[in-house]
Design a protein that fits this description.
Strand content: 25-35%
Strand order of the largest sheet: 17-21-20-19-18
Oligomer: single chain
Shape: globular
Bound molecules: (2R,3S,4R,5S)-2-(hydroxymethyl)piperidine-3,4,5-triol
Largest sheet: 5 strands, mixed
Number of helices: 8
Helix content: 10-25%
Length: 448
């Protein structure tokens, strides 16, 4: 659908924003029944932000479209002709969150911050996430930042961590940069971002963490480094005997994937076969979150060992490196997308299974110490599509500051049109002493 419009604008981020706006217009118009609310909000606000030249080109493009589109596009034409070109309205919502719907920012464009998390700091919220383009899930722009006072109306603060055009750089445009999370370090006064990094052209083989810091919440973040986690160091919850046994596993010497998924193979995985395999290079680090405990200690929590086992690793006092202490959690359970919170001394972690971009049933674990033992519970989701996490995959759980309220956040991925992925934010409620996430079509954080 982009056609000639790919020529508009000089830099990729601008192109992508333009593509996104244009795709919405086309998609919303084609959707029966015609969605008047989204149409007027998103479309009007988007068009008003276009420069005169872009509007001319949009008009020309629409006029060239085949007749079959034309009836519906008469609506568009009316707007294109009538719009006061220089006016850029500020989009203000009504304080509601509508899971799964387009979520316009202050300029009327769907928020582009996927797989992200929210930092609550100094009375404000900052939402960081992956900027997704329209055609690929690889990172073409970087990590975006939005700010808000009320969790429903978000102001686009731009790109907090940018990908770069230097060939061979860890953050080279086209790398995979996923699930960024930002925490504030009171000791240094720095904002620290952790993320999952895959090197350009290498698929998901690198399995590295990345870390960056900034002096301001909106960035710019300065990239520090990437890597596997804690080479040479064994997890605390693996005894000496288990370490020896895992390292001596015969299938490790031949092929760790031989007889994959058979019960003996699963048992070797649980024992730590992949941890032992990666002890020299360091542990794999993919889907991740960062959690700051009430004593100020922070933890990097990530999918490791070929996504078969989770790891919780303690961070240094400045939050920019690992201390060396870590544990394996739920070995062999195949968890991705960890999101965690703590209430009344209990840690609750909601995760997903591993089905690529497709949704699956959420899992939940709890522990009274971050160092475990961790107990598995049933899916906490309730309501339509609860067995598929409402079509989404967990990414973060926010504790609303000064309250006992928690908000579960998930992404409904759209791998064929990544920038149009949607957000599912829902408040956590409690049943029988356990967290539940109940579907709601619309709710207001201000009424929690
Ligand atoms: C599921 C992960 O949770 C996402 O972050 C992403 O890595 C996709 N897999 C890729 O298939």
């Amino acid at each position: 659908m982009q056609g000639d419009f790919r020529k508009i604008g000089g830099d990729n981020s601008y192109l992508s924003v333009f593509d996104t706006k244009f795709s919405y217009i086309c998609e919303e118009i084609r959707k029966p029944p015609f969605n008047g609310r989204i149409y007027s909000r998103v479309f009007l606000a988007s068009l008003a932000n276009f420069a005169t030249e872009n509007l001319r080109q949009l008009r020309a493009y629409i006029l060239k479209l085949p007749l079959k589109y034309f009836m519906k596009l008469t609506h568009v034409l009316a707007f294109v002709t009538a719009l006061p070109l220089a006016q850029a309205p500020v989009f203000a919502g009504d304080g509601s969150i509508r899971p799964g719907e387009i979520w316009p920012d202050n300029t009327g464009v769907h928020i582009n911050a996927h797989g992200g998390g929210v930092l609550a700091h100094d009375g404000k919220y900052y939402w960081y996430g992956e900027h997704k383009s329209d055609h690929t899930s690889s990172a073409l722009v970087g990590v975006t930042c939005y700010s808000s006072d009320n969790l429903s109306d978000w102001t686009n603060c731009g790109v907090a961590l940018k990908v770069v055009d230097t060939e061979g750089h860890d953050l080279e445009r086209g790398c995979v940069l996923e699930r960024p999370k930002v925490v504030y370090n009171a000791l240094t006064g720095k904002y620290v971002m952790w993320f999952h990094l895959e090197l350009k052209g290498k698929g998901y083989a690198a399995a590295r963490y990345g870390v960056a810091t900034a002096d301001n919440p909106e960035g710019p973040f300065t990239y520090l480094r990437s890597g596997r986690v804690l080479p040479g160091i064994y997890p605390e919850n693996m005894s000496l005997a288990e370490r020896r046994e895992a390292a001596a596993l015969p299938r490790l010497a031949s092929d760790p994937w031989a007889e994959a998924w058979s019960e003996p193979w699963r048992s070797d995985v649980r024992l730590g076969m992949f941890n032992a395999r990666d002890i020299v290079s360091g542990q794999m680090a993919r889907d991740m979150t960062v959690f700051v405990d009430d004593d100020g200690k922070a933890y990097h929590i990530f999918s490791s060992e070929e996504n078969l086992t989770l790891v919780i690793a303690e961070l240094s006092a400045d939050y920019t490196s690992h201390t060396g202490r870590y544990i394996r959690v739920a070995p062999g359970d195949q968890n991705e997308a960890p999101a965690i919170f703590k209430k009344d001394g209990t840690y609750w972690m909601i995760t997903s299974g591993c089905t690529g971009w497709d949704p699956n049933e959420a899992r939940m674990y709890s522990a009274t110490s971050i160092w475990g033992p961790w107990t598995r519970h049933k899916n906490p989701c309730r309501g339509p599509k609860a067995e598929l996490t409402f079509g989404g995959q967990s990414t973060y759980i926010l504790n609303v500051p000064g309250t006992d309220n928690f908000i579960f956040m998930a992404d409904i991925w759209r791998p064929k049109h990544p920038s149009d992925a949607r957000y599912v934010w829902l408040p956590i409620s409690w049943a029988d002493g356990k967290p539940t996430v109940e579907w709601q079509q619309e709710w207001k954080p201000g009424e929690l």
